[in-house]
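TASK: fixed-backbone design
INPUT:
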């Protein structure tokens, strides 16, 4: 059962994150303007809230899951360095001479 969840991709690249943020903000802004105008015309503030909440639900549906359009620019990571074990291995900072301040 858990193998089904492990096969679902859960990552998003940086350009995908930027696109998702722009879509989210655009939908929220559009729904707020439309909701305010509609609520003002019919003089019912409740409809403004409903329209903004509907816009929020739509924007969450479009931006929260990592859709393939958000994963088109993957990063190429450097390969991991092999780990060297032993007492003779020192950190690069330890090789430098320590200067004493007078």
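OUTPUT:
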């Amino acid at each position: 059962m858990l193998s089904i969840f492990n096969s679902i991709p859960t990552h998003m690249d940086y350009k995908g994150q930027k696109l998702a943020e722009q879509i989210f903000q655009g939908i929220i802004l559009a729904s707020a303007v439309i909701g305010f105008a509609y609520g003002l015309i019919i003089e019912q503030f409740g409809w403004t809230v409903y329209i903004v909440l509907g816009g929020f639900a739509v924007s969450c549906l479009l931006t929260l899951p990592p859709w393939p359009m958000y994963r088109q620019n993957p990063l190429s990571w450097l390969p991991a360095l092999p780990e060297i074990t032993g007492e003779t291995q020192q950190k690069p900072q330890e090789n430098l001479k320590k200067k004493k301040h007078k």
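COMMENT: Residues 14-42 form the longest helix (29 residues).
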